[in-house]
Amino acid sequence: MANEAEPARVAVIGLGYWGPNLVRNFAAAEGARLVAVCDLDEQAVARQLAQYPAARGSRDGDEIIAADDIDIVVVSTRPSDNYPIAKAALEAGKHVFVCKPVSQIPEQALALAELAEARELILHTDLTFLYTPSVRMLRQILESAACGELSYIESMRTQAPWRADINVVWDLVPHDVAILGHVLGRMPVEVSAHFAARRLASVEHAAFVTLRYDDGLHARLNLNWLSPEKVRRMVYCGDQGSVVYDEMEDDKKLRIYRGGFDIGGVNGSEKLTTHYRSDGVETPSLSGDEALAVECREFLAAAASGGTTLSSGAEGYRNSLVCAAIDRSLKGDGRAVTIG
Question: What pTM does this model have?
Answer without folding.
Answer: 0.92
